[in-house]
Amino acid sequence: MASMMFTDCSSISSTLLHVNGRRGAILFRHCVGQLRLQSSASARGCSISIRCSSSPSSATSVDGKAVAKTIRDEITLDVSRMKESIGVVPGLAVILVGDRKDSATYVRNKKKACESVGIKSLEVRLAEDCSEEQVLKSISCFNDDPSIHGILVQLPLPSHMDEQNILNAVSIEKDVDGFHPLNIGRLAMRGREPLFVPCTPKGCIELLHRYNVEIKGKRAVVIGRSNIVGMPAALLLQREDATVSIIHSRTKNPEEITREADIIIAAVGKPNMVRGSWIKPGAVIIDVGINPVDDPNAPRGYRLVGDVCYEEACQIASAITPVPGGVGPMTIAMLLSNTLISAKRIHNFE
């Protein structure tokens, strides 16, 4: 069985794809013939096509930051149009329990993102030692509030709370995180449509779509099987008619299985676990991992790396998301998108 623990590899700078969504798409990157550039008069039309090559020179950087900016611009226009047409502003409520600095940072970033596109945001902060009933009461109030179209409970919750019970209390019509079991169940069933798709997996698939990566009929490997990313990502790929394998902690020969993949989504939380030897030449890699590793030369004493060794992967893959700047910005963009979708659905606005 292949080892799943690896040492760190050195950092590498990436060449980014720049998108100008206001004056049409301008897509530029030096490459070697397998990249088809397109320009369009609208942000929605900007795209880039990546075709697998058996001998790529250097991987294209899948720029989640630029794509997320384009999506936020699209959302801003729709929010403005909705306000002008029917006088409704989409609203997102966030419930934060406890004093975790990372959770507070995430909530602050989500609030700023809402403000940037014109979505109204409300925040409820509860003490670490508050009762589960207090959290449920806040959820119930937002469920009944017609001005709120999305409810997000920031995870993780304190250990004395039943996370499943709390998430289940969120109205499925306002479950913009996509974690309600009915939404996940619908995602898993053929012929059924979830009201919402979890934000990070949705962002991964959106990146593949925006870069015109063909999914149908391709072999895809998802590394990690969490309820938040791995499992819904695998379900989404399956919906796109990919042949999907899931790698987890009990998988034998993960390197061998991963090396067959045309598309890899890594979401396991192990820094630089996926090495170059795991990767099929020309594969497309979406790296969800964001892991701190010690670096005495970095200003903070550490730097962030993904689950995939970027330096090795970019010499073999045809395209890869950088860390940071890849999937992270897309997660928040998809939360904004889900909130807008909810408001449109509730008010029957096209």
TrEMBL record:
<dbReference type="GO" id="GO:0009853">
    <property type="term" value="P:photorespiration"/>
</dbReference>
<dbReference type="GO" id="GO:0005829">
    <property type="term" value="C:cytosol"/>
</dbReference>
<dbReference type="Pfam" id="PF00763">
    <property type="entry name" value="THF_DHG_CYH"/>
</dbReference>
<comment type="subunit">
    <text>Homodimer.</text>
</comment>
<dbReference type="GO" id="GO:0004477">
    <property type="term" value="F:methenyltetrahydrofolate cyclohydrolase activity"/>
</dbReference>
<dbReference type="InterPro" id="IPR036291">
    <property type="entry name" value="NAD(P)-bd_dom_sf"/>
</dbReference>
<dbReference type="GO" id="GO:0004488">
    <property type="term" value="F:methylenetetrahydrofolate dehydrogenase (NADP+) activity"/>
</dbReference>
<comment type="pathway">
    <text>One-carbon metabolism; tetrahydrofolate interconversion.</text>
</comment>
<protein>
    <recommendedName>
        <fullName>Methenyltetrahydrofolate cyclohydrolase</fullName>
    </recommendedName>
</protein>
<keyword id="KW-0554">One-carbon metabolism</keyword>
<comment type="function">
    <text>Catalyzes the oxidation of 5,10-methylenetetrahydrofolate to 5,10-methenyltetrahydrofolate and then the hydrolysis of 5,10-methenyltetrahydrofolate to 10-formyltetrahydrofolate.</text>
</comment>
<keyword id="KW-0601">Photorespiration</keyword>
<keyword id="KW-0378">Hydrolase</keyword>
<dbReference type="InterPro" id="IPR020631">
    <property type="entry name" value="THF_DH/CycHdrlase_NAD-bd_dom"/>
</dbReference>
<dbReference type="GO" id="GO:0035999">
    <property type="term" value="P:tetrahydrofolate interconversion"/>
</dbReference>
<keyword id="KW-0521">NADP</keyword>
<keyword id="KW-0511">Multifunctional enzyme</keyword>
<dbReference type="InterPro" id="IPR020630">
    <property type="entry name" value="THF_DH/CycHdrlase_cat_dom"/>
</dbReference>
<dbReference type="InterPro" id="IPR020867">
    <property type="entry name" value="THF_DH/CycHdrlase_CS"/>
</dbReference>
<feature type="domain" description="Tetrahydrofolate dehydrogenase/cyclohydrolase catalytic">
    <location>
        <begin position="62"/>
        <end position="177"/>
    </location>
</feature>
<dbReference type="InterPro" id="IPR046346">
    <property type="entry name" value="Aminoacid_DH-like_N_sf"/>
</dbReference>
<comment type="similarity">
    <text>Belongs to the tetrahydrofolate dehydrogenase/cyclohydrolase family.</text>
</comment>
<dbReference type="InterPro" id="IPR000672">
    <property type="entry name" value="THF_DH/CycHdrlase"/>
</dbReference>
<feature type="domain" description="Tetrahydrofolate dehydrogenase/cyclohydrolase NAD(P)-binding">
    <location>
        <begin position="198"/>
        <end position="345"/>
    </location>
</feature>
<keyword id="KW-0560">Oxidoreductase</keyword>
<dbReference type="Pfam" id="PF02882">
    <property type="entry name" value="THF_DHG_CYH_C"/>
</dbReference>
